[in-house]
From TrEMBL:
Function: Produces ATP from ADP in the presence of a proton gradient across the membrane.
PANTHER family for the chain: ATP SYNTHASE DELTA/EPSILON CHAIN, ATP SYNTHASE EPSILON CHAIN, CHLOROPLASTIC
Signal peptide stretch: none
Entry membrane topology: Peripheral membrane protein
Family: Belongs to the ATPase epsilon chain family.
Annotated ATP synthase F1 complex delta/epsilon subunit N-terminal domain residues: 4-84
InterPro entries: ATP_F1_dsu/esu_C_sf, ATP_synth_F1_dsu/esu, ATP_synth_F1_dsu/esu_N, ATP_synth_F1_esu_C, ATPsynth_dsu/esu_N
Source lineage: Bacteria, Bacillati, Bacillota, Bacilli, Lactobacillales
Complexes and interactors: F-type ATPases have 2 components, CF(1) - the catalytic core - and CF(0) - the membrane proton channel. CF(1) has five subunits: alpha(3), beta(3), gamma(1), delta(1), epsilon(1). CF(0) has three main subunits: a, b and c.
Gene: atpC
Record protein name field: ATP synthase epsilon chain
ATP synthase epsilon subunit C-terminal domain: residues covered: 89-136
Keywords associated with the record: ATP synthesis, Cell membrane, CF(1), Hydrogen ion transport, Ion transport, Membrane, Transport
Location of the protein in the cell: Cell membrane
Length: 140
């Protein structure tokens, strides 16, 4: 049976490196399911969880990825992101604190009509919500 080698890399190093039967990502144009023998592809990713169905124990891993690029070629799925965290590694309290800070920043930016600050706060809020959502996968 064919399988994918999945690797998620950030500037801090390798976050994930395993064999998989399927990878599900959210690209800018929508959700993609990648299986072995997939046609070569390079796509930009959004802030979202990456679902990986492992070959070895039929488990599913979820990784919080804050954007990036995915390349699939020759049964290798490489994701390069600014930041990524496995569900088991997410500090939920810190994620909720980041969410509250982003919400406050967003309110302030909207009050003074500062579009640049508003965009930054919206991105920070999406990242915090993504981390919180992915962390729930580890606790169920």
């Amino acid at each position: 049976m064919a399988e994918l080698h999945v690797q998620i890399v950030t500037p801090a190093g390798i976050v994930y490196d395993h064999r998989a039967s399927m990878v599900i990502v959210k690209a800018i144009d929508g959700q993609l399911g990648i299986m072995p023998e997939h046609t070569p592809i390079i796509v930009p990713l959004t802030i979202n969880g990456v679902r990986i169905k492992r070959v070895t124990n039929d488990a599913e891993d979820l990784i919080a990825v804050n954007g990036g690029i995915m390349e699939v070629r020759n049964n290798v799925c490489s994701i390069i992101a600014d930041s990524a965290e496995r569900s088991r590694d997410i500090d939920v309290e810190r994620a909720f604190a980041a969410k509250h800070r982003a919400e406050e920043s967003l309110r302030k930016a909207e009050a003074v009509h500062n579009n640049k600050q508003q965009k930054r706060a919206e991105i920070s809020l999406r990242k915090a919500i993504n981390r919180i959502s992915v962390s729930k996968h580890n606790r169920s």
